[in-house]
Amino acid sequence: MNLWPLRVLNEDRVDAYTGFDTHSHQEFEIFSYVVEGELEHKDSLGNTEHLPRGALQLTSAGTGISHSEKAHGSSPVYFIQIWAKPWKSSLTPKYYTRRFSDSEKLDKWVTVVAPCGSEGVNEEREGSGPAPVQSALTMYATIPSPGMTLDRPLRGTKAYVHASR
Known about the structure:
Elements: E1 6-14, E2 19-25, E3 29-36, E4 39-43, E5 48-51, E6 55-60, E7 65-71, E8 77-84, E9 94-99, H1 102-105, E10 110-115, E11 131-133, E12 139-141
């Protein structure tokens, strides 16, 4: 029995005017965090977004959703995409966006994704604070200054740390 909700972690670098054409997902919590450039997202719920550096979009695929992701404009996009298994199946599909500035993350940890009901999490489509995920997974982001050391107390029994520029 696998009790770890993390299923996929991709670092995607997509050339300008290209990307991933419309495709479908079910029963996953899928979130994309933009590291550089701008990501265009379109989905079957009617959402169309241009997400800049520091933005996060979370698609709770539930019973099914179709979407596409592409580099927006004339520059490439670099984003991290993570898939997690939800606590339960057959959830209603939902979509959330959050925007985190570089200054918010400078030399400190910022919670960008956290389980529903956690402190600071709200379920507004374009709310502030961490995006709500239907699994036992929390994601933090930071931009440390050169030579800076940051502590991060971890909760739970498992942790995964991913460093990116």
